[in-house]
UniProtKB/TrEMBL annotation:
Pfam families: adh_short (PF00106). Belongs to the short-chain dehydrogenases/reductases (SDR) family. PANTHER family: DEHYDROGENASE/REDUCTASE SDR FAMILY MEMBER 7B, DEHYDROGENASE_REDUCTASE SDR FAMILY MEMBER 7B. The keyword DNA damage does not apply. Gene3D superfamilies: NAD(P)-binding Rossmann-like Domain (3.40.50.720). InterPro entries: KR_dom (IPR057326), NAD(P)-bd_dom_sf (IPR036291), Sc_DH/Rdtase_CS (IPR020904), SDR_fam (IPR002347). Residues 6-182 form the Ketoreductase domain. Signal peptide: none annotated. GO terms for molecular function: oxidoreductase activity. Keywords: Oxidoreductase. This is SDR family oxidoreductase. GO terms for cellular component: membrane.
Length: 247
C-alpha cells in the first residue's frame, strides 16, 4: 500500500483506534475523511488538520451507507483507500437464552456494515490507482473471548470474508486485514483502564511502522496479537480460550 498521497476514508474515526489511524495517516501526507455517527467526535479528530474532512454514516443502516457512499464519492472522487473500522463490542450471557438483540446488532454492524460499505465503494475503488481496502478485525477472530461471543464471531466472519475478498480482488485492489489485540480504548466501558491491554499510542505507532513496510503485509499484526493469531497453529487454542475466560 502506498503510504502517502492517498485519499483515505475511514469509518469509526471519532475515537479509539480509528481516530489514531486517521490522524497518523493524515500526518504522513494523506487526505483523510473520517466517518461515523457522531459529528462532534469526528470534528475533534479533524481539529487543526487541514486535509481532514468529516462525514456522518450509520454503519448498521443500509440506507445510510448507500447515501453516504454517494455523497463521499461525489465530494471526494480521489478516494482510493477504504478503511472499514467501525464496530461495536458487548458482553452477553448465553446461559439463559432468549434475547438475540445484541447478536443481531453486532452482526449487522460488524459484518454487514463492512460488506455493505465495500460493495458501495468497490466499483469506484477498482478504477483508482493504488487502491486498497483495510478491514479491522481482532485477535478475537482467532481465539474467542467467551464473554463477548457475538463480537468474537463477527470478527471471525470478517476475517474469513476478507480472505475471500483479497483473493477475488488480486491484482485490482489491495486488501489488508488489521487485527488488534486488546487495546486501551473505550470500545467497552472501562477498557481504557485495563493494564493488561496495549496502550493506544503504542499500538498505533507499531501499526504505522508495519504499514510502512514494503511490501505492506496482508495482515497487520503487532507483537501483542501474535499469541492469538497463532494459537491454533501452535497447539495452544484451548489453553488460550481458557485463559481469556479467566479459567
Amino acid at each position: 500500500m502506498k503510504i502517502s498521497g492517498n485519499t483515505i476514508l475511514i469509518t469509526g474515526g471519532g475515537s479509539g483506534i480509528g481516530r489514531e489511524l486517521a490522524q497518523r495517516f493524515h500526518d504522513l501526507g494523506n487526505t483523510v475523511i473520517v466517518a461515523g455517527r457522531t459529528t462532534a467526535t469526528l470534528e475533534e479528530t479533524a481539529q487543526g488538520r487541514a486535509r481532514m474532512h468529516v462525514l456522518t454514516v450509520d454503519a448498521s443502516d443500509a440506507g445510510s451507507i448507500a447515501a453516504f457512499a454517494k455523497e463521499a464519492i461525489a465530494r471526494f472522487p480521489q478516494i482510493n483507500v477504504l478503511i472499514n473500522n467501525a464496530g461495536i463490542m458487548k458482553r452477553e450471557d448465553l446461559t439463559h437464552g432468549g434475547d438475540t438483540a445484541i447478536a443481531e446488532e453486532t452482526l449487522v454492524t460488524n459484518v454487514l456494515g463492512p460488506i455493505r460499505l465495500t460493495n458501495a465503494f468497490i466499483g469506484h475503488l477498482a478504477a483508482q490507482a493504488d487502491a486498497a481496502i483495510i478491514n479491522t478485525t481482532s485477535g478475537l477472530a482467532f481465539v474467542p473471548l467467551a464473554s463477548t461471543p457475538s463480537y468474537s464471531a463477527s470478527k471471525a466472519a470478517l476475517h474469513s470474508w476478507t480472505v475471500s475478498l483479497r483473493t477475488q480482488l488480486a491484482g485490482k485492489v489491495e486488501v489488508i486485514e488489521l487485527a488488534p489485540p486488546g487495546v486501551r480504548t473505550e470500545l467497552t466501558p472501562g477498557q481504557s483502564e485495563v493494564e493488561a491491554y496495549m496502550p493506544l499510542d503504542d499500538y498505533a505507532a507499531e501499526v504505522m511502522d508495519l504499514f510502512q513496510q514494503v511490501p505492506t503485509p496482508s495482515e497487520i499484526l503487532v507483537q501483542n496479537v501474535l499469541p492469538l493469531r497463532n494459537a491454533e497453529r501452535d497447539g495452544r487454542f484451548d489453553q488460550m480460550v481458557a485463559a481469556l475466560a479467566g479459567h
